[in-house]
Amino acid sequence: MPGFERLGEEEKRQILDVLDTGVLFRYEFGDQRNGIYKVKEFEEKFAAYTGTAYGQAVTSGTAAVKVALKALGVGIGDEVITQGFTFVATWEAILEVGAIPVFTEIDESLNMDPEDLANKISPKTKCIMPVHMLGSAARIDEIVAIGDAAGIAVLEDCAQAAGCRVKGRHVGSIGRCGTFSFDSVKTMTTGEGGMIVTDDYELWQSMSEYQDHGHDHRPNPGGRGGEGRRFIGFNYRMMELQGAIGLAQLAKLDDFVATQRRNKDRLREIVSLLPNVSFRHLPDEAGDSASHLAFMLADSEQRRRVNAVLQEEGVGAVCFGENSWHFFPQWEHLLAGATQAANGWPFNREDSAGRITYSQDQLPDSMQLLERTLVYPVMLNMDDNRFAFIEAAIRKAASV
After folding, report:
1. What is the average per-residue pLDDT within 124-134?
2. Where is the domain boundary, 252, 276, 298?
3. Whether 304 and 223 share a structural domain
4. In terms of CB atoms within 10 Å, which end of the chain has fewer, N or C?
5. What confidence tens digit (pLDDT) does each residue in 158-168 have?
6. Where are the alpha helices (DSSP H) in the chain?
């Protein structure tokens, strides 16, 4: 990761196709397009890549989660269960639709713990949203089985996991629907952008309408603006330039993943020189997108000593236990119920929920796990000199 390391002539050619038409908007202007609809083509090809029937492109991975939640009928007072280790966008989108985020522990997959999930289901649970964090799959079969038994839809947040598979099935294709991000640091990128995939036509139709102000996109004599509307929507449309870049990046995605796997294997061999090291559990190692290498040390003290040396040597790893973007205890604005709304929405509720509050120490198992975990992003353009540099630092850290 990320795809920006391999931007090249393919992306330029796709972009020039769009510029030659002069049409940047994804709908209408048929006479000017010469048959070029990049976003529509990207949707179709990405859905096919993931083994699903339908794709809906949107402006970001965050928008993808919100659009999917709206299509699933999630609203005020509903609960959505997700995990306490994720990017803030996951729960921001839940709050945006008026629902209440409920957080589970993670296990050594660094993803949702199915056992804790089962304990968190309530009569208000409307959706379960596991996140395939750091490019590797959650225990998704167990999670979907729990959801199916309770009659609750599973929405897979695959923002960081394009190219990841479980037993031959692409993540995002296993639950009711799956969302993806193509921002600037993802394995494949369109700068900004997102996608939702599903096999459910009715769900896709609702997503298609919601992301374009409710327009139903049915042919009509009046052209744009003459469509019908079943419900109110909003604007999360992807534009043609993003679709063009997405097509070029998608064509390279399998090569990106293969490169990441080779680089991750070398990096793992080097990291194995550390004493007391272990690695995250992967439900399907062969299907890993290999965008990150996560490893655990004996305890938080060893993690601090090791990473202090690595940082001094210029190859510090990420400690997500201290990361303010991705881990529950570090989300000070969520914990404080901070909002711009004068009435305290979405934390202050007039319904039976009252005020939504969270405690910093409510996920102790996740805290203990992430305090001893370090993560290296796996870059595409890593050469022998870079691996040798990292190895020298790891050998030095192994002796502390």
Report:
1. 98
2. 252
3. no
4. C
5. 999 999 999 99
6. 9-21, 30-33, 38-50, 61-71, 89-96, 114-120, 140-150, 201-210, 240-271, 300-312, 332-335, 364-371, 384-397
